[in-house]
Design a protein that fits this description.
Blueprint (H helix, E strand, L loop, with lengths): L3 H15 L3 H17 L1 H8 L5 H11 L5 H12 L6 H15 L2 E8 L5 H15 L2 E8 L6 E6 L2 E6 H16 L1
Helix pairs in contact: 1-6, 2-3, 2-6, 4-5
């Protein structure tokens, strides 16, 4: 059986696609999910069974005044079915479908020091050309990797960090000592 979030995410995505509002719903869904993630009281209110469906529906209308009607109806359905806690996974599914539709490939580059924009852009171009897709780049700094670089392309990871190489060397030496 498909995961609940996938069913809801596909449903919202299909509705947005049919109405030509993929980007608008993507942005508004992200804003709502981010607000829930950042505000504990808001999350408790929408996720808690102690507040009535009616209270949540009224608050939703007030909170999201001016939001797309498709999103309001969708969130209202989640509230009615007591499914609001899966909103973060629904957002993830919607983002995945949006990336597929727009032929984008998420790429995360992690390095021990900040890379200059030219290097980061060059890596992104090279990966995009190889994959035949548009790349969305995210660069992070993690001093714990000591040096080198870690590149995550979709679900694949290339770990060329010094920390990883030292760990491999440690395992190799430990096996030789046994």
């Amino acid at each position: 059986m498909e995961e609940l979030a996938q069913v809801y995410g596909r449903s919202l995505f299909q509705s947005a696609l049919e109405h030509g509002r993929l980007d608008q719903l993507r942005e508004q869904l992200a804003q709502f999910a981010d607000a829930l993630a950042e505000n504990r009281e808001l999350a408790v209110f929408f996720f808690s069974p102690y507040f009535s469906t009616e209270e949540k529906q009224r608050s939703l209308g007030t909170l999201l005044d001016g939001a797309d009607e498709l999103l309001l109806n969708f969130l209202s359905l989640l509230i009615e079915n007591h499914r609001m806690p899966v909103i973060f996974r629904i957002r993830h599914e919607y983002e995945r479908l949006w990336d597929e539709e727009n032929k984008t490939l998420p790429v995360e580059i992690t390095s021990a020091i900040a890379l200059d924009e030219e290097t980061t852009a060059s890596l992104g171009r090279t990966i995009g050309e190889g994959a035949g897709r548009k790349v969305t780049l995210a660069a992070h700094v993690d001093p714990d990797i000591l040096g080198g670089i870690i590149i995550r392309v979709g679900n694949s990871i290339l770990d060329a960090s010094i920390r990883n190489r030292l760990e491999q060397l440690r395992r190799h030496v430990a096996q030789g000592a046994s």
